[in-house]
Amino acid sequence: MAALLGIGASQIRTKARDGILIRSGRGRYDVRASLARYLAQLRDAASRGGRQGQEEANRDLKAESIRVKRAQADAQELKNAASRGELLEATAVERQWASILRDVRAGLLAVPSRVGAKLPHLTAHDLAEIDREIRRSLERLSDGN
User: Which residues form a coiled coil (predicted)?
Assistant: First the structure.
């Protein structure tokens, strides 16, 4: 049967179990009845497959249409938010934060000299140690730690 139908032995057993191929004994099949049922099953699957293929294509087309409409709606929402002034340009925000962080860095690096002026009892070594700690902290922050 496997050679006649061009399928593997495991598929023969499965089709026999499903009632498509009719056994006439151990390892034997009613060739005429089995072939008729097998061909009928193929015809039925082919006719259903055409309709199912079309239904699946329609579902895919509908899903794609919905995806496009959602993308268009999202784009329109962004345009509306921009026209209301609710959005900022990323480059402008980045420039502003860079400026703020430069000011913070400059302020922190000026701490040792300001502390030295206010606390004259601190030695040059003390001020150098404060400066090292501030720089070390800034370096760790710039490394992402």
Answer: 54-81
Q: Are residues 63 and 104 in the same domain?
A: no
Q: Rounded to whole angstroms, how far apart are CA atoms 17 and 125? A: 91
CA angle 79, 83, 88 (to 5 degrees): 85
Q: Residue 119 sits in which domain range? A: 90-142
* Burial bucket for residue 21 (CB in 10 Å: 0-12, 13-18, 19+): buried
Report the domain count for the chain.
Answer: 2
The predicted-structure confidence for 80-111, as pLDDT tens digits, reads as follows 998 898 988 899 999 999 999 999 999 999 99
Amino acid at 55: E
pTM: 0.44
Determine contact, residues 4/31, Cβ cutoff 8 Å.
Answer: yes
The two three-digit tokens of residue 91, written as one number: 């480059």
Token pair belonging to 100: 């703020």
* CA distance readout (Å), 77 to 73, 83, 91: 6, 10, 21
